[in-house]
């Protein structure tokens, strides 16, 4: 069991935040303080990256470790990268050995529904072998903008689950929609918010903790 899976099983985790190292408004230190105050036991950062990274990733890792020690809270390092038409994601390959989770995002994809679905499936298959954990973040944010995409979304979701990827339940965008959500095993769900400030953590924090607790109870009842 990898560190990401252990963190999910323990519950009370804050997943998918962006700091002021990229387009976030709050520092990691501010997130740590608010997370502890609200009852979170761990934070899973999902910082934006591009192949030409705009910041020094090693400096970012050092900052994360400093905040972990200062606030005495578990912090996992992840990155969010956009899917490209060829099935790769816009990420420097050199940083992947240093992350616990890779979030694949579709919202900036330029292309047809079938092309997006195919690219996502290629990426799930490829990166699942490279990173400890893989999450499809805010799933359907682009793919579900057209009604005829429901079948493509379902096929893409099933493929992701078959290769061992996780599906984010994004509370900010209410994704994936309920008809699809009920088809996902609870152990493959990750509760996230895509927060860009501590105000969004304050807004969604209780709902996150409540949903994580609800999922934990469902899992324990099946043991």
Topology:
Elements: H1 3-10, E1 13-17, H2 28-38, E2 42-48, H3 57-71, E3 74-82, E4 101-105, H4 113-127, E5 134-136, H5 150-162, E6 166-170, H6 178-181, E7 189-195, H7 198-221
Parallel strand pairs: 1-2, 1-7, 2-3, 3-4, 4-5, 5-6, 6-7
Helix pairs in contact: 2-3, 2-7, 4-5
GO cellular component, one term: cytosol
Pfam families: PHP
GO molecular function: phosphoric ester hydrolase activity; zinc ion binding
List keywords for this structure.
single chain; 223 residues; TIM Barrel; seven-stranded parallel barrel
In short:
40% of the residues lie in helices and 18% in strands. The chain has seven helices and seven strands.
Question: Could you explain how this protein is built, in words?
Answer:
α2 (28-38) packs parallel to α3 (57-71) and α4 (113-127) runs parallel beside α5. This protein is 40% helix and 18% strand. The chain is globular, with a radius of gyration of 17 Å. The chain has 7 helices and 7 strands, in the order αβαβαββαβαβαβα. The chain has 223 residues and is of the alpha/beta class. 39% of the residues are buried. α4 links the parallel β4 (101-105) and β5 (134-136). The protein has a single domain, classed as TIM Barrel (Alpha-Beta Barrel). A 7-stranded parallel barrel has the order 1-2-3-4-5-6-7, surrounded by 6 helices. The longest helix has 24 residues, at 198-221.
């Amino acid at each position: 069991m990898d560190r990401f899976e252990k963190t999910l099983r323990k519950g009370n985790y804050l997943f998918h935040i962006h700091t002021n190292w990229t387009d976030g408004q709050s520092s990691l230190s501010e997130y740590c303080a608010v997370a502890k105050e609200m009852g979170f036991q761990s934070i899973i950062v999902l910082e934006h990256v591009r192949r030409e990274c705009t910041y020094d990733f090693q400096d970012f890792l050092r900052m994360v470790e400093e905040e972990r020690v200062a606030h005495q809270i578990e912090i996992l390092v992840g990155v969010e990268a956009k899917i490209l038409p060829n099935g790769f994601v816009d990420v420097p390959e050199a940083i992947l050995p240093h992350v616990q989770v890779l979030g694949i995002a579709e919202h900036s994809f330029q292309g047809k529904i079938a092309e997006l679905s195919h690219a996502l499936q290629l990426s799930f298959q490829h990166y699942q072998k490279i990173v400890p954990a893989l999450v499809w973040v805010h799933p359907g944010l682009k793919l579900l903008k057209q009604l005829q995409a429901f079948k493509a979304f379902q096929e893409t979701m099933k493929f992701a689950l078959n290769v061992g990827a996780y599906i984010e339940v994004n509370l900010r965008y209410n994704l994936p929609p309920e008809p699809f959500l009920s088809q996902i095993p609870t152990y493959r769900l990750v509760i996230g918010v895509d927060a860009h400030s501590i105000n969004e953590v304050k807004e969604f924090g209780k709902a996150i903790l409540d949903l994580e607790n609800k999922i934990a109870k469902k899992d324990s009842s099946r043991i």
